[in-house]
Amino acid sequence: MQKRKMISYAGKILDFVLMLAVGWFSGIIIGKNMTSISSSLPFERLIIELIFLAVFGIIGFIIHIIIHEAGHMVFGLLTGYSFVSFRIFSFMWVNDNGHIRFTRYKVNFAPGQCIMLPPSLDENNQIPYLLYKVPDRNPTCL
Question: Is 106 exposed, middle or buried (0-12, 13-18, 19+ CB in 10 A)?
Answer without folding.
Answer: exposed
